[in-house]
Write a structure and sequence with these properties.
The chain is globular and about 30 Å long. The chain starts with 10 loop residues before the first strand and ends in a 27-residue tail after the last strand. A five-stranded antiparallel β-sheet has the order 4-3-2-1-5, with no helix packed on it. The protein has 92 residues and is mainly β. The chain has strands at 11-15, 26-36, 39-43, 50-55, 61-65.
């Protein structure tokens, strides 16, 4: 998970893969304090206490927030996709 290390210390909103215009897929918000064995460990931004973890296999998008509640693209406008080699077929 070295590719995601730049997120540690950032305040983020995490969305599931089914986020659409009609369905709000927001799963969690907080400051990422670590990434360990496929889990994002989040802390409450106000208390800095770890209070939530999200398994990366359930994450569709991570939006980095500079100032709440405004969400902005990462510098350079790059999109970081999580590759899932064992993803289930959506046709089935």
């Amino acid at each position: 998970m070295k590719a995601l290390q730049f997120l540690v210390g950032k305040e983020v909103d995490i969305f599931n893969p089914h986020d659409t215009e009609e369905v709000d897929g927001l799963m969690a918000s907080g400051r990422i304090i670590g990434i360990n064995e496929g889990w994002l460990i989040l802390a409450n931004p106000k208390t800095s206490e770890p209070d939530f973890a999200v398994n990366l296999s359930h994450v569709g998008m991570i939006a980095v927030r500079e100032m709440a509640p405004l969400m902005e693209a990462l510098p350079g406008g790059k999109l970081h996709r999580l590759h899932r080699p064992n993803a289930p077929d959506e046709d089935k």
